[in-house]
Design a protein that fits this description.
Layout lengths: L2 H4 L2 H17 L36 E13 L14 E12 L5 E5 L3 E10 L7 E7 L4 E6 L8 E11 L1 E2 L4 E8 L5 E8 L20 E9 L3 E4 L7 E4 L2 E6 L12 E4 L1 E7 L5 E7 L7 H18 L7 E7 L6 E2 L4 E5 L12 H17 L9 H8 L17 H18 L1 H14 L7 H15 L10 H10 L4 E8 L2 E8 L28 H13 L4 H20 L7 H10 L10 H18 L6 H11 L20 H23 L5 H18 L17 H10 L6 H16 L5 H10 L5 H11 L6 H8 L5 H11 L1 H5 L4 H9 L5 H14 L5 H36 L17
Parallel strand pairs: 1-11, 8-9, 17-18, 18-20
Antiparallel strand pairs: 1-2, 2-7, 3-6, 4-7, 5-6, 9-10, 10-15, 11-14, 12-15, 13-14, 16-17, 19-20, 21-22
Helix pairs in contact: 2-6, 3-4, 5-6, 5-11, 6-7, 7-8, 10-12, 11-12, 11-13, 13-14, 13-15, 15-17, 16-17, 17-19, 18-19, 20-22, 21-24, 22-24, 24-26, 25-26
């Protein structure tokens, strides 16, 4: 990571400082809800409903500075005998120093789903202190210990509690179990903790709020055949006999309960020492030994670079990165033991693409930086579109944090603005001072702004009156939703500016700033009037314009359309189509930017969805050829795309561009027959078939496939769509898929690419076979049925399968995703009648949840019909004018007959 790239760290770091400080200082009063399994969640799920308010905050009468925790988990492992009823349970004990801060005769801790077997309170001379009563309130998740006498303020006691608990499934957090199956079919178990945000209380009684920080001493009794890991580097284990060992971990730094972590399982590792001398280890399960090097090296470099930026060396001897078969989130930044879904840690070069590698690096560095309080960067176009909706909210919540795209994406924009105002060096210096001042303590976003205000005064950064007051500048951006639009007024006396909010705030709370902002002026997003836009597009069509201008044009126009739509103002897509047709179809000294393609493709898919199920469907292919005709280059298939962490930034950016074009753009090029993409795909598939045929492979395609992984999705789609052998290619894809699932069940990238490729078939018999397979797939329904949305033949196939095999579809956990794919392109009265007739036929078989799902999509079709009546004629006029030119071009006069 070079100096230029380090400039991006400032926004990466500052946003999470604000978020984590806010989390620590303002806990929500509602109970934490655990999200359901994404494989079983439906559109009409009730999982998002909040529970009744309960007073979960602890009284601030005591403080705990240290915990001594001992846990023994019982789970299947070699050499272990489990007594009846003990499987997936644990024994535990905790001793803690308790200081009385305010007059009270009650010690209140958090505890949940634990069976308390004993409670003992002593003074520091080990003399017993009388306990009157112990109560566990499962509703408030609080353990109350009533004392016989009220102790003096300032008294210090040792509280010891013994308990038992349950080891949960992975999606219930706390101490949970997971497993993997080896090539012989044997199941291997492991246990780990996920204590964020309020699950430490399910593992040991404690003051389980992020503001209550302490030092933690952990002992773990675990199966001797396994490896034990914790926040700190493990000491030499002691053999207890009977297949058990005990390990002690050194004391942690001062930290919150939700960062406590430990795990045991059949682990293997790869380790490196980074430039700061920190031991960095990547851990996976047995059989992954050869796949852990990349993640260890990447994590070591990210940790070192964060230390350079913050001027704080990582304070622990080691930092572990553990990949597990199942995990509730993508990853969790436990101090010293970061836990991930395994695909971010174990990189299998036979199945994973360059984008998979880049994605893993981003997640690893994201989590490493979270240990210093950080988050990922993004681009402003996405943030503007998010904040343009009716569901916008402030960046920072007074009563608790948001963790969603508005927080991350809009937050990055705001922080980059601040960096532009005060300078990156000043911001970096201010953050270093802040982190040192509040090390191992609790802080909020006010502390960040106040600290930066002080350094602005020291550095002489001017403001609107005196030195810059960062708090006054940033609070309106932090605590208000929406963002400002600046109107520029040119008159005889000069230029004046005014501001207004970007979107409708009628659903938002009143603001003390009345939805106004202090605005450092700098040209960024510009709302052009029609004449100005035409002039700009003319310039783009004739001159080489920086790609950033092109990206901004698309992103700004998308945000404006979304804003107007949410505010029920008039809007049109003609301008967006003009922009797409111009910025992607002009020569440039630069290669077509992967970000430009990335932001254009969702807009193109939107227009395609309007026409796929209509008589105008042929316009879709013409539109893609028109927009992307000059973007597509035959050599994209062959360009090198290997990416290594040691390369300089220009080389890495080139590889990222190449990989994005291969992984993201080429499947669209093949699907819409742009250039020679169809023949290229078939050529490479013939090569794959020949290699795997010669190898007589019954074990899938990864081990015998010499074609670069980055183009597999495009190759397999082309093989299925342009199959001239009466389904022979589809049959071959299915054969390879079945072998790949058996051979590489955990490295899903290759068999996922095969499955996605099969979803491109245009043949009804093959689609029927595919649908039957998808209904039994372990892939997320939203993903696999999402592939079928882009196939114009799939909706009818889905309809016929539901009509003839209704029982299997109605009982499918992802029914809503099935229906979503079926009606995704439907926007006609004919389709509405067809849907209603099917619904009436199936009604006697449906339960209430299924009926609600059908009601949802009936409304979707009706809404699509009404929307199309209003907006589709204008879009079609543009397409016929631009894509179906007959006679003179442009036409010399309007046709006397309606085209629609």
């Amino acid at each position: 990571m070079d100096r230029v790239r380090l400039g991006d760290v400032l926004s990466v770091l500052l946003l999470a400082i604000i978020l984590l400080g806010n989390l620590a200082s303002a806990l929500p009063r509602r109970r934490l809800l655990i999200p359901g399994d994404p494989r079983t969640q439906d559109f009409d799920s009730d999982d998002g409903q909040e529970e009744e308010d309960v007073p979960v905050r602890l009284p601030d009468d005591i403080s705990v500075t240290e915990y001594y925790i001992k846990i023994q988990p019982y789970y299947p492992a070699p050499g272990i005998h489990l007594d009846e009823g003990r499987n997936m349970t644990f024994d535990g004990s905790v001793a803690m120093s308790v200081k009385i801060k305010r007059p009270t005769s009650e010690i209140v801790l958090n505890a949940a789903n634990l069976k308390i077997s004993s409670v003992e309170l002593t003074d520091f001379l080990k003399r017993p202190v009388g306990i009157k009563e112990t109560r566990l309130n499962n509703k408030t998740e609080q353990l109350s210990i009533l004392l016989q006498r009220q102790p003096r303020v300032g008294s210090v006691f040792v509280l010891t509690i013994k308990f038992t608990g349950k080891i949960n499934p992975f999606d219930a957090a706390g101490l949970y179990y997971t497993s993997y199956q080896d090539s012989e079919g044997e199941v291997h178990w492991m246990v780990a903790t996920q204590l964020a945000v309020f699950s430490a209380r399910t593992v040991f009684p404690c003051m389980d709020e992020p503001a209550f920080k302490a030092i933690f001493h952990v002992e773990l009794v675990y199966p001797s055949s396994h490896v034990a890991l914790g926040n700190m580097k493990e000491t030499t284990p002691v053999d207890l006999g009977n297949g058990w060992s005990q390990v002690s971990f050194p004391a942690t730094p001062v930290m919150s309960t939700y960062l406590v972590a430990f795990s045991s399982g059949p682990y293997v590792s790869h380790s490196v020492i980074n430039k700061d001398g920190t031991l960095v280890r990547s851990w996976g399960w047995r059989g992954q030994e050869n796949f852990l090097k990349f993640s260890a090296e990447t994590a070591g470099e990210c940790l070192y670079q964060m230390g350079l930026y913050t001027n704080i060396k990582f304070p622990m001897e080691k930092c572990d990165h553990l990949g597990l078969p199942e995990f509730l989130a993508g990853a969790m930044e436990n101090f010293g033991l970061i836990v991930y879904k395994y695909q971010f840690i174990a990189f299998n070069p036979d199945t994973m693409t360059t984008l998979d590698k880049i994605g893993a690096a981003l997640v690893i560095c994201h989590e490493v930086s979270h240990q210093e309080a950080a988050t990922v960067r993004t681009d402003r176009e996405k943030a503007m579109a998010r904040d343009a909706s009716a569901y916008t909210h402030p960046l920072i919540a007074v009563n608790g944090p948001y963790f969603d795209p508005i927080t991350y994406e809009k937050g990055q924009m705001v922080l980059r603005m601040l960096a532009d105002v005060i300078g990156e060096d000043v911001l970096q210096s201010g953050l270093q001072n802040y982190l040192q001042t509040h090390k191992y303590s609790t802080a909020s976003h006010w502390d960040v702004w106040s600290g930066l205000t002080e350094i602005c005064e020291d550095e002489g950064i001017p403001g609107w009156h005196g030195f810059l007051n960062v708090t006054e500048l940033m609070e309106p951006y932090s605590l208000q939703s929406s963002y400002p639009v600046i109107n520029v007024h040119a008159g005889k006396t000069g230029i004046t500016f005014s501001q207004e909010r970007f979107n409708d705030i009628s659903t938002q709370s009143p603001s003390p700033w009345n939805y106004t902002w202090i605005i450092p002026l700098r040209t960024a997003g510009v709302i052009y009037d029609d004449n100005s836009l035409r002039a700009l597009l003319k310039k783009i069509a004739t001159d080489d314009v920086p790609v950033g201008v092109k990206i901004a044009l698309i992103g700004d126009e998308v945000a404006i359309v979304k804003r107007n739509k949410s505010m029920k103002l008039p809007y049109s897509y003609d301008r967006l189509l003009d922009i797409l047709a111009t910025v992607l179809n002009t020569a440039s000294k630069e290669d077509p930017s992967s970000q430009l393609v990335d932001i254009a493709l969702p807009q193109m898919e939107f227009f395609a969805s309007l026409l796929r199920d209509s008589i105008d469907a042929p316009l879709v292919e013409r539109l893609f050829r028109r927009i992307f005709g000059k973007v597509y280059k035959s050599e994209i298939w062959d360009a090198a795309s290997t990416w290594n962490a040691g390369q300089n930034r220009d080389a890495v950016d080139l590889k990222i561009y190449s990989s994005t074009m291969k992984n993201v753009f080429l499947p669209h090029a093949v699907r819409y027959n742009i250039g020679d993409s169809a023949s290229k795909a078939q050529k490479y598939f013939s090569e794959i078939s020949e290699n795997c045929k010669l190898a007589e492979s019954n074990n899938g395609s990864a081990w015998c496939n010499k074609v670069p992984n980055d183009i597999h999705r495009a190759v397999y789609c082309g093989a299925a769509k342009y199959d001239n052998n009466l389904g022979a290619n589809f049959a071959r894809l299915m054969f390879l898929y079945n072998g790949e699932v058996k051979t590489n069940p955990y490295y899903y990238q290759e068999y996922s690419a095969l499955l996605e490729g099969m979803a491109c078939t245009q043949r009804a018999p093959q689609l029927k076979t595919l649908i039957r397979l998808l209904l039994t797939s372990r892939h997320r329904p939203s993903l696999i049925f999402g592939w079928l949305k882009k196939n114009p033949e799939a909706s009818e196939a889905l309809y016929l399968y539901l009509k003839t095999k209704s029982d299997s579809v109605l009982q499918y956990a992802g029914l809503s995703y099935y229906l979503d794919a079926m009606v995704y392109n439907w926007r006609s009265e004919r389709r509405l009648r067809q849907f209603n007739e099917l619904c009436n036929t199936l009604l006697p078989k449906m339960n209430d949840k299924q009926k609600r799902a059908f009601d949802t999509f009936e409304k979707r079709i009706k809404d699509n019909i009404e929307w199309s009546k209003q907006h589709l004629p204008s879009i079609l006029r543009w397409m016929y004018d631009e894509l179906v030119v007959v006679g003179k071009a442009p036409w010399s006069k309007r046709s006397a007959y309606p085209l629609l």
